[in-house]
C-alpha cells in the first residue's frame, strides 16, 4: 500500500532530491542546473517556497514517486510561466498552478501499475483544496495522451525547453470543467463533483479563453 501525502520534513526533501537525480541524471542523462553530483540530489529553490506543494509516495519506507505543484494566486507575478502564454487578464482573476518534477521509480511505471493514477488523484485533491482554477504543465510528445486521458487539454504550439533539451507541449487542466471531464471519461470527474466551494461559471469561461 502506497503512503501518498504532502512532504513534511527536510529528510523527505532529501529523498525527493535523490529520486530526481536517479531519474533525471542517471536514467535520462539530463543536464540539471541544481544537480549536486556529490550528494546525488536535485533540490531547487522552488522546493522550499510557501507557495510550493511537494507530493511524495512511499512504499515500505522507500520514496517511489514525487511531484511538485507551484501555486500562483490572482495578481501574482507569473513571468516564470511565460512559456504557457497565459494572458494577464486571466492570471489577475484566477488561481493557477504549475505541475513539475512528476516522476515514478522505473520499476513501478507502465500498464498494470496503479501508482501513476493514485498520484494524479492525490494531486487533484491538492488542487481542490487550494481552490485552483487552472493547472498547467509541459508534456513530452509521448505523454500527451497520458495527460489527455486525465482531462488535460493540449493548446498552442510546442517549443524547445532549454533545461530539458526536449520539445514539449503546454497542457492545461480546468479544475471545474465537469462537462469536459465527463466527455473524456476523466478519473477526476467523480472527484470534481465533490467540490465544496462554489463554482463560478464566469471564471470557468475566463479559463477557457486560454484555448482561443
Topology:
Blueprint: E1 3-6, H1 10-27, E2 35-36, E3 41-42, E4 52-59, E5 62-72, H2 88-91, E6 96-104, H3 115-129, E7 134-140, H4 144-148, E8 153-154, E9 159-161, E10 166-174, H5 178-183, H6 189-192, H7 201-208
Parallel strand pairs: 6-7
Antiparallel strand pairs: 1-4, 2-3, 4-5, 5-6, 7-10, 8-10, 9-10
Summarize this structure briefly.
The chain has 212 residues and is of the alpha+beta class.
Structural class: alpha+beta
Task: Estimate nothing, just give the exact number of structural domains.
Answer: 1
Assembly form of the protein: single chain
CATH class: Alpha Beta
User: What percent strand?
Assistant: 25-35%
Largest sheet: 8 strands, mixed
Please report the number of helical segments.
7
End-to-end Cα distance? 42 Å
**What is the level-2 CATH architecture name?**
3-Layer(aba) Sandwich
Q: Which parts are unreliable, with pLDDT below 50 for 5 consecutive residues or more? A: none
Radius of gyration: 17 Å
The helical percent reads 25-40%
CATH homologous superfamily descriptor? Gcn5-related N-acetyltransferase (GNAT)
Mean pLDDT across all residues, rounded? 91
- Shape call: globular
What does this structure look like?
The protein is α+β, with helices and mostly antiparallel strands. The chain has one domain (3-211): 3-Layer(aba) Sandwich (Aminopeptidase). The chain has seven helices and ten strands. Strands 1, 4, 5, 6, 7, 8, 9 and 10 form an eight-stranded mixed β-sheet that branches. Strands 2-3 form a two-stranded antiparallel ribbon. A hairpin with a 2-residue loop joins strand 4 (52-59) and strand 5.
Amino acid at each position: 500500500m502506497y503512503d501518498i501525502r504532502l512532504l513534511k520534513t527536510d529528510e523527505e526533501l532529501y529523498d525527493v532530491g535523490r529520486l530526481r537525480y536517479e531519474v533525471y541524471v542517471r536514467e535520462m542523462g539530463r543536464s540539471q542546473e541544481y544537480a549536486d553530483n556529490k550528494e546525488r540530489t536535485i533540490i531547487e529553490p522552488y522546493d522550499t517556497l510557501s507557495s510550493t506543494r511537494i507530493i511524495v509516495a512511499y512504499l515500505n519506507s522507500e520514496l517511489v514517486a514525487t511531484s511538485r505543484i507551484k501555486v500562483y494566486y490572482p495578481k501574482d507575478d507569473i513571468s516564470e510561466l511565460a512559456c504557457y502564454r497565459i494572458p494577464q487578464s486571466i492570471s489577475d482573476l484566477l488561481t493557477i498552478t504549475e505541475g513539475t518534477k512528476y516522476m515514478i521509480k522505473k520499476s513501478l511505471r507502465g500498464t498494470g501499475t496503479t501508482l501513476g493514477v493514485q498520484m494524479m488523484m492525490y494531486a487533484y485533491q491538492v488542487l481542490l483544496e487550494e481552490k485552483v482554477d487552472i493547472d498547467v504543465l509541459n508534456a513530452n510528445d509521448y505523454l500527451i495522451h497520458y495527460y489527455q486521458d486525465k482531462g488535460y487539454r493540449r493548446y498552442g504550439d510546442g517549443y524547445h525547453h532549454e533545461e530539458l533539451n526536449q520539445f514539449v507541449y503546454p497542457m492545461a487542466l480546468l479544475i471545474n470543467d465537469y462537462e469536459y471531464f465527463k466527455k473524456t471519461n476523466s478519473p477526476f470527474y467523480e472527484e470534481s463533483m465533490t467540490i465544496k466551494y462554489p463554482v463560478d461559471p464566469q471564471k470557468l469561461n475566463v479559463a477557457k479563453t486560454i484555448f482561443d
